[in-house]
Amino acid sequence: MKMILRRITRIYAGAAFASALLLLSPAAHADRLADIKARGALICATLASNEPLGFSDPQTRQIVGFDVDMCAAVARELGVKMEHRSVTVEARIPELVDGKVDLVSAALGYTRERAQQIDFTASHYQNPIKLIVQSDSGYNLMTDLADKRISANRNSTPEQSVRRVLPKATLLTFPDTPAAFLALAQGKADGLALSMPSGIRFVNESAGRFKFVEGALAWEPTAMGVQKGERALLAEVNRALASMEKAGEIDELWQKWFGPKTKFNIPRDKKLTPIASFR
């Protein structure tokens, strides 16, 4: 009888072990794309205070912008609706890693460090990272700020670029662009590091009070992000982007938000580029 009980115990233990292995196997990994299709919605995160990427329309109070339109277009290509989620620069990667959103399109610059946490789509645009100063500061070149105080969004590529290019500068980091700009406006920082599209409105709307210094800290390939290991979703979003590029839709959206009829007037010189090109 004892022998029979021991055999039964071994059988159940083996079955439990096999079940555990099955749960851990790649085949049993939850398929995010299948989840999106099942719910009929793509949860896409954008910034909410960074014009023209994602910002509050003063009339409708809705979050609008280039990134929002890109999210909606990708969702359409996937055959689902877009469910919008606002995030800060600081929270955009943690929200994705934690599975709270399906896709991030929030001024997400590609870096090798970030690629260890999330997977990047192809880069749909590239922009220079610049420094803004007060026009009467006497600063004209990036090197003029080599040992000065520079504000930037926390955990952003501009912050990383300052650390790399101007290692002797004192970095002051903030949770969002308006806060980083306020530090410059109040004289708490000597320069502000940010991508050119984000910075142009501060320069253009300042009545000459602020300007860009010459040169760029870096050129930032910007892409969308998905949770690490979600290969089916990544492939489908890349397919959607390629389809939109071929149809001229990305250019149309760029013209809508950045073109010559806007206050930004920034050309989209770099087209859709495989992220492997930047590794």
Helices, strands, pairings?
Elements: H1 2-24, H2 32-39, E1 41-46, E2 49-50, E3 54-56, E4 63-64, H3 66-78, E5 81-86, H4 92-97, E6 103-109, E7 118-120, E8 125-134, E9 149-153, H5 157-165, E10 170-174, H6 177-185, E11 191-195, H7 196-204, E12 210-212, E13 218-227, H8 231-246, H9 249-258
Parallel strand pairs: 1-5, 1-6, 9-10, 9-11
Antiparallel strand pairs: 2-3, 3-4, 6-13, 7-13, 8-11, 8-12, 8-13
Helix pairs in contact: 3-8
Pfam family, one: SBP_bac_3
InterPro entries: Bact_solute-bind_prot3, Solute-binding_3/MltF_N
Domain Solute-binding protein family 3/N-terminal: 41-261
Structure keywords:
alpha/beta, 9 helices, disordered N terminus, D-Maltodextrin-Binding Protein, domain 2, 279 residues, 13 strands, 3-stranded antiparallel beta sheet, 10-stranded mixed beta sheet
Write structural notes for this entry.
The chain has two domains: 30-126 and 221-278, Periplasmic binding protein-like II (D-Maltodextrin-Binding Protein, domain 2, 3-Layer(aba) Sandwich); 128-219, 3-Layer(aba) Sandwich (D-Maltodextrin-Binding Protein, domain 2). The chain is 37% helix and 24% strand. The chain is built from nine helices and 13 strands. The protein has helices spanning 2-24, 32-39, 66-78, 92-97, 157-165, 177-185, 196-204, 231-246, 249-258; strands at residues 41-46, 49-50, 54-56, 63-64, 81-86, 103-109, 118-120, 125-134, 149-153, 170-174, 191-195, 210-212, 218-227. It comes from Herbaspirillum robiniae. This is ABC transporter substrate-binding protein.
